[in-house]
Specification:
With 470 residues, the chain is α+β, with helices and mostly antiparallel strands. It is built from 14 helices and 18 strands. Strands 7, 10, 11, 12, 13, 14, 15, 16, 17 and 18 form a ten-stranded mixed sheet that branches. Strands 1, 2, 3, 4, 5 and 6 form a six-stranded mixed sheet that branches. A two-stranded antiparallel ribbon has the order 8-9. β8 and β9 form a beta hairpin. It starts with a helix and ends with a helix. 44% of the residues are buried.
């Protein structure tokens, strides 16, 4: 267990000259400021460091902008990307004076979700294991003007480069939807992914595996071991930081957009979840898929609130270009031990009670992990508290169902606008225990509607292809 004293000793041992104070903003991006290492005392871990929060997206207005960053000693690591030895600390945000948690701080929301779980008596730990996918591109260009717009991503692996004069072009381009597990020379990114894994391991993240993903053009996945809700979210922030910076060191760029390529698989963040109490797993039982009745009620809560959850777990307009049928996308609000197009899958790799969990598949890596994991836990707990029946499992091939039967299976939200409408109507489950606040939900909906309108109001390049000669 790291303590303020042990963190300061670690910094001295590694010759740290600076301390980097990191915190997550509303929409999931790390922000930071740095201080000389002598500014870091044991008192700082209690009293925090003051800063101006008025320019942080979705946070305070300028007339009440003072905030405190309270470092968590468990998050300490020596930043591998700084030229000068630098200690990194992740912080929770508090109000000055009272040092009460700031209600719009995503990390604080995750902490409150864990406290609420304990208060229910249902369980004392919620474990989360996210599987974030991403692309590694060789080049990206984009621009948006009033009189034109474009984007272009490039990868030496892309199938569209099979005819390019690369002097020499050595072939081995990965065809669309055929990128799952090919070896070199088709997979050109093995060593880069391994370097990412080794760096994460040095920073305390337990890596389970890495591999090329289904899409062409460098789609990848690195999986790390499950952890408690807050720690899993902290790890996801480190994960993205390492992936992006390692790629950049090699002259490449990592992209966590859910759907950067047309006509191929998008990037998801399938999220494994389980509840434990006094060291014992609560999701193992004798019901469907080896689950307990509690686990099935948890699934019922996820399915009931799934369309509202989309607003936090799939929070971009781009998210809904992934959540469409035909690309293994989990658009169907059902559960299954076999069907990967179902929103909830029950992994069957092991019969061990400790391995029994549910996998919620709709989320994508554009989500703020603190908000997404907290919202998923709150939905699942609502299912347990209200004994929500998840219905019958969907073990049929969804794409072979007759149209009349397929129409009976509800779907996730079809757009960001639909997701926000759902959240507006269905968010009482998030307000329990003051985990989320009405103020936060209103701010989120307002901010995300602006994003939706920004896309809706702009002409699309493909509209010129379809309509220029009307």
């Amino acid at each position: 267990m790291s303590t303020p004293k042990s963190v300061i000793e670690m910094a001295k041992k590694n010759g740290a000259r600076m301390v980097d104070i990191k915190f997550v903003d509303t929409f999931g991006a790390w922000q930071h400021f740095s201080c000389p290492i002598n500014e870091l005392t044991e008192e700082v871990f209690e009293e925090g460091l003051g800063f101006d929060g008025s320019s942080i997206r979705g946070w305070k207005s300028i007339e009440a902008s003072d905030m405190l960053a309270i470092p968590d000693p468990r998050t300490a690591f020596i930043d591998p990307y700084c030229a000068v030895p630098t200690l990194s600390l992740t912080c929770t945000i508090a109000e000055p004076g009272t040092r009460e948690p700031y209600t719009r701080d995503p990390r604080g929301i995750a902490q409150r979700a864990e406290k609420y779980l304990v208060s229910t008596g249902i369980a004392d730990q919620a474990f989360f294991g996210p599987e974030a996918e991403f692309f590694i591109f060789d080049n990206v260009q984009y621009e948006s003007r009033s009189n034109g717009t474009f984007y272009s991503v490039e990868s030496v692996e892309g199938i569209w480069n099979s005819g390019r004069d690369e002097m020499p072009n050595l072939g081995n381009k990965i065809r669309h939807k055929e990128g799952y597990f090919p070896v070199a020379p088709s997979d050109t990114l093995q060593d880069l992914r391994t370097e990412m894994c080794l760096t994460m391991m040095k920073l305390g993240i337990a890596i389970e595996r890495q591999h090329h993903e289904v899409a062409t053009a460098g789609q990848a996945e690195i999986d790390y071991r499950f952890d408690t809700l807050l720690r899993a979210a902290d790890a996801m922030m480190v994960y993205k930081y390492v992936v992006k910076n390692t790629a950049r060191m090699h002259g490449k760029t990592a992209c966590f957009m859910p759907k950067p390529l047309f006509g191929d698989n998008g990037s998801g963040m399938h999220t494994h979840q389980s509840l434990w109490k006094k060291g014992k797993p609560l999701f193992a039982g004798n019901e469907y898929g080896g689950l307990s009745q509690m686990a099935l009620y948890y699934v019922g809560g996820l399915l009931k609130h799934a369309r509202a959850l989309c607003a936090l777990c799939n929070p971009t307009t781009n998210s809904y270009k992934r959540l469409v049928p035909g690309y293994e996308a989990p658009v169907n609000l059902a559960y299954s031990a076999r069907n990967r197009s179902a929103a909830v899958r029950i992994p069957m790799y092991s019969d061990s009670p400790k391995a029994k969990r549910i996998e919620y598949r709709p989320p994508d890596p554009a989500a703020n992990p603190y908000l997404a994991f907290a919202a998923l836990l709150m939905a699942g707990l609502d299912g347990i508290q209200n004994k929500i029946d998840p219905g019958e499992p969907l073990d049929k091939n969804i794409y072979e169902l007759p149209p009349e039967e397929l129409r009976k299976v509800p779907n996730v939200a079809g757009s960001l606008s639909e997701a926000l409408d759902a959240l507006e109507k269905d968010h009482a489950f998030l307000l329990k225990g003051d985990v989320f606040t009405k103020d936060f939900i209103n701010m989120w909906i307002t901010a995300k509607r602006k994003e939706h309108d920004a896309i809706r109001l702009r002409p699309h390049p493909y509209e010129f292809f379809l309509y220029y000669d009307v």
